[in-house]
Predict the structure.
Amino acid sequence: MTIASTTQQICFVLLSAAVVLGSLGVVLLPNIVYSAFLLGGVFLSVSGLYLLLNASFVAAAQILVYVGAVNVLILFAIMLVNKKENLSAIPGLALRRVLSGLVCAGLFGLIMRVAFTTAWALPGPVPVGEEATIRIGEHLFSDYLLPFELASVLLLMAMIGAIVLARRDVFASDVITGEPVDQGLIEKARTPLLIETPNPQLQETR
Amino acid sequence: MTASPIPLQAFLTVAAVLFCTGVWGLINSRNAVRVLMSIELMLNAVNINLMAFSSYVDGQLIRGQVFAIFVITVAAAEAAVGLAILLSLYRNRETVDMERFNLLRW
C-alpha cells in the first residue's frame, strides 16, 4: 500500500467506527427498513477494511455479492412481508436481553483475551500486495479447484431450492380442504393453513 | 519490511465487536428478517478475521482470501434459501414474529 501510514490509521478508525455503529443500528433500530440500509453501510465499510488489507479482489466481491445481491434480497423480503403487526409482549423480555448481553460481553472478553495473549507469528512473510488477485486465481484453479466447482453446484442447488420454496403452488383444488382454488387470486383466496385463529373446518383436518 | 501501521489485534477487535453484536441480535430479534441480518453480520466478522490473518500471517500464500471468497459464496446461497423459507413461512402463518414460530416446540 502506497498511502501514508497516518492516512491508513485514520481510514481504519473511521471504517471501524462505521462498522461498529452500523451493526449496533442494525440490531437495535425499531424500523427494519433503516436496519436493512444500515446493513448495506456495514457491508461497504467492511469492504473498505479489505481495501486497507490490500485485498482489492475480495473487496470488489464483497460489494458485488453483499451490497448488490444479499442486501437487495433482504430489502425485497422486507417489502414482501412488511405488515404492521403489534408484537405481543413476552414476560421476561428485559431479563432475557440483559442476560444475553452478559453472555455476549463474556464472549467478547474471551475473544479479546485470545487475541491479545496469543503469540501470533508476526511479522509474517512479506504480503503480496497488489498481486493478490493473481494469487487468488492461481489458487482457485489449482489447489482449490474442487471447492470452486462444488461452490457452483451449491449455488445451483440454492437457486433451485429458493425457487421451489418461495413459489406459489397452483393446484386446481386445495390439498387439505378440497375446495376449488381461485387461480387468479391465490394469495387472497387461500386461507393460511397454520394460522392460530380458530377455524373449525381446519381444526378437524389437523 | 516495515511494520504495518495498524496492528493485527485492531482488526481482531473490530471483528469481535461485530460478531458479538450479531450474536446478541440473533438471540433478541423478534423479526425473522432481522435474524437473517444478524447472521450476515456474524459471517462478515469471520471474514474480517480471515482477511486479517491472511494479510499478516500468511502474506505469500493468501489462503485466507480464498477462504473468504468461499464464505461469501456460501453466505449468498444461505441468504437466498433463508429468505425463501421466511417467505413461505410468512404465507402460512401471516407473521414474521419469531416467538410464534413454535410449531415444533416441545
Remarks:
- The radius of gyration of chain B is 18 Å.
- The CA atoms of residues 33 and 83 of chain B lie 8 Å apart.
- Chain B has a mean pLDDT of 89.
- Chain B has three helices and no strands.
